Please model this.
Amino acid sequence: QVQLVESGGRLVKAGGSLRLSCVASGLTFANYVMAWFRQSPGKEREFVAAFSWGSGGSPYTSHSVEGRFTISKDNAKNTVYLQMNSLKPEDTAIYYCAAGSSPAGYDYWGQGTQVTVSS
Model:
């Protein structure tokens, strides 16, 4: 049974930093591309960051968080991280990690962790 468990979300003031973690189990971590998405109330789920497909798997982020958020991973720990700096109130959302086995899409999703940024 595949599980993705996020943690690290909490209330933080604008300008602060947080690091989210997502631990994967039940899958061969190295065979999956990992990503972060977020969803704010009343809005659709939004892509945040991921590793690219193909050899190397370079990290990349959405334009809205570029330069502030960084995705990284530790294959030995089956864990993907999202380092979030210079947080803004508009970053408030539930953050989800996802695992995909092909470019067709993501196969597995976590339950999410709440990030709230106060002004």
Q: What stands out?
A: The first strand starts at residue 3 and ends at 7. The CA atoms of residues 26 and 98 lie 14 Å apart.
